[in-house]
Amino acid sequence: MDPSVTSGLYRDITDLAHDSPSWVTHFVEIGTEAVIVILGVLFLLSWWRTRSADSRAMAVAVVGPLATAVAYVGSELFKSAVQEERPCRAVAGAAASLATCPPVGDWSFPSNHSTIAGAAAVALAIAWRRIAFLTLPLALFAAFSRVFVGVHYPHDVAVGLVFGAVVATLVVLALTRPARVLIETMRTSRTGVVVWFAGPGQGPASAQAAGATTGPAHGAIQGPVHGPGPGPEPDHGSATETRRLRPRGRHDSHL
Fold it and tell me: Cβ of 239: how many Cβ atoms within 10 Å?
């Protein structure tokens, strides 16, 4: 993408940064790095809460960080291929960046921070839907902050967000099933640290509740296991009559 397309917007945002109160600029400067840490902590919490959940839930939780790492590697490959110079050096007449301009060779497109934030936010939202209201705004803030502090063009962060989100979704979809099998195997291990990492899974009460909710498994034999098969009940009255009419052995021979 031609950097000149978003150079004007970059100038507007960096001018806004210089006109903002000092507490705002300090908040954004800290937040641009802190968001990545917060998302990492949320990954840990997501893993911890699924240690007592079913194996699929835990598989999705532990695949999330891997999906984010894959997105980051892809972002680095893009950087090496495109080699776009940072706007804090390339855009003439722009206000000085709040953050230190990265050295030559640390390319601009796409934004690694935005890629990581987008991937982590989506992976966490898939694993833990209730915190999507938190992770998605954090990703947007991380992306905007990179332009605000002057180290990325707007198109760098927009592409980074989308790229990270798409890669994370695809990786989670592809790896959830094998990760689930691995988690189930780990939960049967006798190695303490392995069992601790995988967690106990659902307790007996939870498993019974899940079975009651889903009903009998497909193909299961329903109905009583023991007892007589189908057919009429034996006629005890007829059997009695038969005994009454049956000959009484040798006494009958004198008749």
Answer: 9
| Residue 250: per-residue pLDDT | 45
Backbone angles phi and psi of 212, in degrees to 5: -65, -30
**How far apart, in whole angstroms, are the C-alpha atoms of residue 147 and residue 9?**
9
CA angle 109, 114, 120 (to 5 degrees): 140
CB 51 within 8 A of CB 58: yes
Q: What predicted TM-score, i.e. pTM, was given to this entire model?
A: 0.76
**Residue found under tokens 């917060």:** 38
Q: Which residues contact 143 (CB under 8 A, 6 or more apart)?
A: 111, 113, 114, 117, 118, 157, 158, 160, 161
Q: Which residues of the chain have pLDDT under 70?
A: 1-2, 203-255
pLDDT score, position 205: 43
Give the 3-state DSSP-derived string for 191-232, with helices as H, strands as E and coil as C: CHHHHHHHCCCCCHHHHHHHHHHHCCCCCCCCCCCCCCCCCC
How many angstroms separate the CA atoms of 117 and 142, rounded?
A: 7
CA-to-CA distance for 95 and 225, rounded, in angstroms? 81
Residue 61 in contact with residue 47, Cβ under 8 Å?
yes
9 CB neighbour count, 10 Å cutoff = 13
